[in-house]
Amino acid sequence: MTALAAALPNTRLVRAELLKLRKRRGLTLTVLLMTVGATVLTYAILAILHAANPAHHGPAGGVTNLSHVLWLLSALGAGAAVLAGSTAGAGDLSAGVFRELAVTGRSRTSLYLARIPGGLAFLLSGVAAAYALAAIASVAFADDGAAPSTGSLAAGGAWILLSTTTYFLLALGLSSLAGSRTVPLVILLAWRLALMPILISLTFLGAARDALPDTGIQELAPHAFASNLQIATLSVPTAVSVGVILLWVGAMLAVGAWRTATRDA
Amino acid sequence: MNATRTHPYVVEAEGLTKRFGHRVAVDRVDLRIPSGAAFGYLGPNGAGKTTLIRMLLGLTTATSGSMRLLGLPMPARRAEALARVGAIVEEPRSHPFLTGRENLEIVAAARERAAHKRIDGALARVGLTERADDRVKTYSLGMRQRLGVARALLGDPELLILDEPMNGLDPGGMEDTRLMIRGLVAEGRTVVLSSHLLDEVEKTCDAIAIVDRGRVVVQGSIEELTGGTETLLVSTGDDLRARALLHGHEVEVVEEGLRVHAIDAAKINRRLVEAGIDVHRLEPERISLERRFLELTTRLEAAA
Questions:
Q1: pLDDT tens-digit map of A183-222
Q2: Among B247, B245, B285, CA closest to B265
Q3: Structure confidence by residue, pLDDT tens digits, A17-70
Q4: Which of A30, A93, A106, B103 is the most exposed place for a label (fewest CB within 10 A)?
Q5: Pick from A25, A97, A104: which is nearest to B95 by CB?
């Protein structure tokens, strides 16, 4: 068997990773609340407001409200992604189970890589369900002609998956490096919810802001929703945005893989 | 067991050393563990037992020295060697929110495909079938230990390495573990058992190595280590006369009768019988493992 083949995880390992995440009741409930729960609650409130006072509150559907829900999902989804990513990255270590897996002789890189599809299957099912509900509601509750187009719905879905996947991978790499759930959780949540908006709004930082992963994510937001997303855009070329995201994710995953392969178990 | 033994030694270590900064945890250990036996790695707490096991299993790197596991060089052929090894290092750990069976499924996924089919058998073997679908957080310490053993058996291992498997067990649990180890050896597997519980090792193992301060101070069969004294224990119908008769030897009065410093039991017996003294007992004195252990470690302490 080549070194590359040995490093690739099999489907049984991926299913095992998914099992470990979905059986954590607290985590599963939190992720569902932050994605599906938040979407259902938002549209329920919008629908009730519209039903109570149609003259003052417009229909719950349409592009504008979907943009607001996308903004909400991008923030809460990132939180859910950080939670899932740091659990996937450090769950075995903190429970002492990593040693039990390492003594099987299975490549540590393979054990590490299995966390990516396993964790994404767990996280993205919640995010995708939430966005599907939002997309349906945006069409079902829209006035005639105000419903988002199929193309913009698809673009919005792809963007929210990109945003949450990026944060999941950053958290996975960082928690595997740190060997802890809590530290990456605090760092990344503080980064996403507090530090990043401040840094992006600091104009004197100039082009240095282009190197932030969130700049890339925001620049890739679909045009149909961008004006309503309450985010600052810096007009960075798409290729640069993609490159910045890949660089951050790649670097974080690489240090996580290195630490997993070399740490004393 | 599917694996067939093709090498006389399951573990071979030469000059194996592990340093943590200036502290030497394992000091130039030379060790050969024969296959098909229960082997005890015996030493006081902090003697470097777990560190040696962690090196053998590739969980930590050796500072210097070489080692082979099942005839395969480590860590170069780690994956191949460990596929035929089951191990518990320190206390077995599990995900508490998963059931016993789910914990085994997770480890089986990291082993070959056939491991999944061994889950039920492994659970039955350690007596956990009825609790297999309960969450591990509801298990007692003994049950968690047994789950660890079940996990170690998933790979149908040729070699089992159990680090302090009796820790925290009640006498019944220790007896069960002892019987299980002997059962595994009877199947042709080798069990390496690290422990500081001298009595349990003596009852369970065929051969041992005694380790102190990171160094192996002696290794051999239990027979060799607990025998080998040059004294006989003699009990007769008239110990007073017997003592006088054996005046050419060094003789001490002990609780069991007389301790005679001599090797030739037949000669002693003949002299006593020919003198008309009834011999009730005559046997080479055995030294307990505990005494042997204390002798060795005390000698080292004095030399230090």
A1: 989 999 998 888 888 888 888 888 888 888 888 898 888 8
A2: B285
A3: 999 999 999 999 999 999 999 999 999 999 999 999 998 999 999 999 999 999
A4: A30
A5: A97
Q: What is the mean pLDDT of residues B97-105?
A: 97
Q: What letters, b where the CB count within 10 A reaches 16 and e where it falls short, cover B240-260?
A: eebbebbeebebeeeeebbbb
Q: Cβ contact (<8 Å) for B58 and A95? A: no
Are A105 and B85 a contacting pair at CB < 8 A?
yes
For the whole model, what pTM was predicted? 0.84
In sequence order, what are the residues at sequence separation of 6 or more whose Cβ sits closer than 8 angstroms to the Cβ of residue A144? none
Those residues of chain B whose CB sits closer than 8 Å to some CB in chain A are: 54, 57-60, 78-83, 85, 87, 89, 92-98, 102-103, 105-111, 113, 116, 148, 151, 155
Interface test with A, best of B70, B97, B119 (most A CBs within 10 A): B97
| C-alpha to C-alpha distance for A22 and A84, rounded to whole angstroms | 10
Average pLDDT of the segment spanning B20-45: 91
In Å, how far is B278's CA from the nearest CA of chain A? 60
Within a domain: A1: no
Q: How many CB pairs under 8 A join A and B?
A: 84
CA distance A167 to A256: 14
Q: Mean per-residue pLDDT for A157-173?
A: 96
Domain boundaries, chain B: 9-220, 232-284
pLDDT band of B171, cuts 50, 70, 90: confident
If you measure CA to CA, which chain A residue comes closest to B58? A103
With respect to residue A176, please indicate whether it lies within any of the assigned structural domains: yes
- Contact of B277 with B258, CB cutoff 8 Å: no
pLDDT digits (tens, 9 = 90+) for B208-218: 999 888 889 88
User: Number of folded domains in chain A?
Assistant: 1
| Secondary structure element (H or E) that encloses residue A182, with its range | helix A182-190
B92, B96, B155 member nearest A104 (Cβ): B155
Domain that holds residue A120: 7-262
- The model's confidence at residue B302, banded by pLDDT at 50, 70 and 90, is low
CATH ID of B9-220, from 2.60.120.650, 3.40.720.10, 3.40.50.2300, 3.40.50.300: 3.40.50.300
Q: Name the pLDDT band for B3 (thresholds 50, 70, 90).
A: very low
In B, which residues are within 8 Å of A96 by CB distance?
93
Residue A207: inside a domain, yes or no? yes
The answer to whether A16 faces chain B, any CB pair under 8 Å, is yes
Q: Which two tokens stand for residue B283?
A: 């046997």
Answer yes or no: do B85 and A103 touch at CB < 8 A: yes
ipTM of predicted assembly, 2 dp: 0.88
As a whole number of angstroms, the distance between CA B95 and CA B82 comes to 22
Q: Quick check: is A183 in a domain?
A: yes
Q: CA-CA distance, A98 to A257, in Å (whole number)?
A: 14
